[in-house]
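Notes from hallway chat w/ T.B., transcribed later so I don't forget. T.B. wanted the structure written out for a chain they're using in a teaching module, and asked if we could keep both sequence and structure tokens in one place. Agreed to drop them here.
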Amino acid sequence: MTPSRTKYCMLVFLVGIVMILSRCSLNDSMAGGTGVGNPSGATTVSIVADTGFVITNDNRDASVSPEKILLQQIPIMDMDSLTLLASSILITVERVYFVLDDKENGYDLLAGLDETQFSCDKEHIILDGPFVFNALTGLSTPSFDSIQLPEAKYTGIKLHVLDNSSLEGHAIEVAGTFLYKDATRTFSIRMEEDLIALFKYKGPAFQITKGDSTNFLLALNADQWLQYISVKNYLDNNLIVLDQNGNLIVDKTTNTNPYKEFKKAFKSNIIKSGILIIIPLN
């Protein structure tokens, strides 16, 4: 597949995911969807693994359907060309902070509302989870139903990424298969760190008004996840070792320095790869 075709397919996939999620959410009963004072229209949040192409405001085609090209695996290549094929990418979000424009005040926006599922501070409208996002589908468990944010200008989101025992969710978990020394092996990389990651919208403050339907889409560029990391070098030099079945397991039970170094770099790259797109769905 040519690079231009790959980019086109990824565009189709990301836009289509947004449209599917929004249709499902708008047809379901909405969390906080009634009696919320002066809310805006429906808002959804999705996290999707990207393969190097990010939608811009000028690259949307809401009529395109993604059903035929949904990705079953995401290739993640290290600096020595060893490729991990991720078939599961899960991110556990304890809390979502919707970042307000400097001229807004969270306390004022929520004051006097009859009913709301939100809390706030001056700079954020806050929605408590936990949610486990599947970055291959954009869906979450429990379902992230359409919410109704207060009418205001927003500049981004913060995600509190954290292990959650009630959902058996790790902060970040990436799993799949890879080819090493002529054998296909499985891998599972689980990161338990507690972190708050800020993703700013690159455009001007985004106005959400009554009746708007909006998606906050976080695209994580998988091409960057193993940037400056060589899984092959770790394995070749026994800095990270395969388990007794010949598979790669990285989690809290493998906590020596090479593993810590690898997890820290991998986690940092995943977070840094994020691009937030705010898409009006009206």
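Follow-up for T.B.: Confidence is low (pLDDT under 50) at residues 1-38, 54-70. Might be a good example for the class.
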